[in-house]
Amino acid sequence: MDLNLSTNAKITWCPGCPNSQILVAFRQAVTELVAGGKLKPENLVALSGIGCHGKITDYLNVNSFTSLHGRVIPTMTGVKSANPSLTVVGFSGDADTYDEGIEHFIHAARRNSDINLFIHDNQIFALTTGQATPTTPKGFKGKSTPFGSIEEPFNPLLIMLSSGATFVAQTFAGDIAGTKRIMLSAMVHKGFSFVSIIQPCITFFDTRDHYKERVYWLDDSFPKNDLSAAIAKVMEGGGKTPLGIFYQVEKPTFEEELNK
Amino acid sequence: MAKQIKPIMTVGIGGAAGDGIREAGSNLGILLNDVGLKTHFSFKYPSLIRGGHNYSRLSFSKEKIFYDYKKLDVLIALNEESIKRHLGELNKNAIVFAENFDDEDKKALGENAISLPLTEFITNIKAPSITRSSVALGALCYLLDLPLGNMTKIFNEIFRAKSPETNILLAEMGYKHLEKLNIKHSNLIAHELINSPTAEFIDGNTAVARGLVAAGLNTYVSYPMTPSSSILHFLASQERNFKIKVIHPENEISSINMALGMAYAGERVAVGTAGGGFALMQEAFSLAGMAEVPLVVAVSQRHAPATGVPTHSSQSDLRFVLHAGHGEFPRIVIAPGDPEESFRAGADALNLAWKYQLPAIVLLDKHVSENMTTSTINPKSVMIEKGKILISVDSSYKRYALSKDGVSPLAFPGTPNAVVKFDSYEHDEGGITTEEIPTIKAMQEKRFAKYASLAKEFKNFETVKTYGDPKSKNVIVFWGSTKTVLLEAAKYFKKTVKILQILWLEPFDVASVSKNLKGAKKIINIESNHNGQLAGLIREKTGIEVTNSILRYDSAPFDPLELAETLNKLI
Question: Which of B147, B177, B198 marks a domain boundary?
Answer without folding.
Answer: B198
